[in-house]
């Protein structure tokens, strides 16, 4: 299942996002979206988790959780 993670702090790293989701299951891919001009985070990422149940638990556990002073939003990517 591919998840969209929004409202990330600009200082949050791809490694930190991966660690958050790995606590709930196996992560095959984690991509922090960067601005091409500046190389800085755009504040959202995609996380791919192959196990639907683990992904559902991660979504429920992490949606609206405070990470680096921001309340992140997690939903299924379209």
UniProtKB/TrEMBL annotation:
<feature type="domain" description="RRM">
    <location>
        <begin position="1"/>
        <end position="78"/>
    </location>
</feature>
<protein>
    <submittedName>
        <fullName>RNA-binding protein</fullName>
    </submittedName>
</protein>
<dbReference type="Pfam" id="PF00076">
    <property type="entry name" value="RRM_1"/>
</dbReference>
<dbReference type="InterPro" id="IPR050441">
    <property type="entry name" value="RBM"/>
</dbReference>
<dbReference type="InterPro" id="IPR012677">
    <property type="entry name" value="Nucleotide-bd_a/b_plait_sf"/>
</dbReference>
<dbReference type="InterPro" id="IPR035979">
    <property type="entry name" value="RBD_domain_sf"/>
</dbReference>
<dbReference type="InterPro" id="IPR000504">
    <property type="entry name" value="RRM_dom"/>
</dbReference>
């Amino acid at each position: 299942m591919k998840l969209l993670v929004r409202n990330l702090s600009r200082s949050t790293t791809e490694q930190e996002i991966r660690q958050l989701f790995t606590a709930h299951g196996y992560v095959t891919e984690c991509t922090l979206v960067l601005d091409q001009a500046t190389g800085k985070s755009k504040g959202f990422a995609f996380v791919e988790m192959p196990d639907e149940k683990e992904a559902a638990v991660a979504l429920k556990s992490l949606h609206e959780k405070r990470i680096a002073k921001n309340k992140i939003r997690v939903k299924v990517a379209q």
